[in-house]
Amino acid sequence: VQVVESGGGLVQPGGSLRLSCAASGFTFSRYAMSWYRQAPGKERELVALITRAGGVTNYADSVKGRFTISRDNAKNTVYLQMNSLQPDDTAVYYCSARVLGRQYWGQGTQVTVSS
Fold first, then answer.
1. How far apart are CA 27 and CA 29, in angstroms?
2. Which residues contact 27 (CB under 8 A, 6 or more apart)?
């Protein structure tokens, strides 16, 4: 199982970024996918989750209305569209898949929101 994030970077407050996570090594369409983030000195937190067919999504209260998780099962890819970014969104963002009872993580992609 492998998940690889991309799309992070430096953005000004109010800006947008789209993260992508390419998955391989498992039947992507059979599993829910999630995005987490970890800011310096803080614990890793769940940001968004999407069910295997994409019919149900859940978000942390801090990102509701600003972030959108989606997936393309034909491309084995999950996305996180982040709008209205704020300095508090600065963190390393991780893609995660729970496959057969084991949690898999990517290497993370840095998102920095700063003027």
1. 6
2. none
